[in-house]
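re: that chain from earlier
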Amino acid sequence: MTGPERLQAIIDKLNPGAWEIADKLAADPDRYGVEVHTLGNGSRLIDCGVQAPGGLAAGVEFARACLGGLAEVEVVPWLLGDAPLSACRVVTDHPLAACIGSQYAGWKIEAGKFFAMGSGPARAAAAAEPLHRNYPLRARPERAVLLLECSTLPGDEVAALVTERCSVHPEELTILAAATGSPAGSIQIAARVVETALHKMMELGFDLRTVCSGVGLCPIPPVIRDPLKAIGRTNDAVLYGGETHLAVDAEDEALAALVGKIPSCASRDHGRLFYDLFKQYGDFYKMDPLLFSPARVSLANLRTGSLFSAGAPAPDLLKKSFGLR
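^ sequence. v structure.
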């Protein structure tokens, strides 16, 4: 099997893998604190943290589904100074497919008054984003799974839009939803610590097909219900606490030139809390796009054995963001 054939085989596993995880949640909603709904067209909606309470376990499964089942996700102990907190650890041997092909929130879902950025393997079925012109990340599944970070539950209009774009029957669509200011929402964002590094590398023009594995660790901030403050804390967790290690097959010269550009400290907006930046700009898309990446990144070259590292966490900023007293 050639490299492109192997990648396609992995892409085709994304939606079935996420569907299996969704079935796991739906089979035991009391355990996971989720609520399962059937929309008017027959599509399945699993509320993991909008009106439902959700929880840590729901957040882990939400993140795993977002990665198409191609990554391990766990909550582990973590210290911020002397304060015991928790962090999300992500491990994948399929970073391009799992993180960019599935997890990246690259699909604008607009239906009626509803708007959210869509994640998950349904993106590979719709294949409607610019990155699909550069990477072979298309799938034509019989079932599709979409994940939404939103403060209101999606309805029939959203399901109709997604089923049409993904070319699946309505009953073959599952949507998982969680608010940012929920336990599940906080975990699924922390689980993007590898994806943000990869996306930054993609924006810098690096070929992600040479990235062979990824490991990431990101603190999970204390939950806060205010939507904007929750967005601030979860982004700060990645920008000032996230750490990612990638194994790459490339030339040393290319990695040496790249590594210092990946961490969030390469951005002109680094050093300020995300909530304050959002109040200043009033729009995510006006912020420096190079800000969205982990605090520290290392690249291990499988070809030569060399290791390159750049960036550093900023615990004082995290303490301020997380309200540590």
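The two ends are 56 Å apart (CA to CA).
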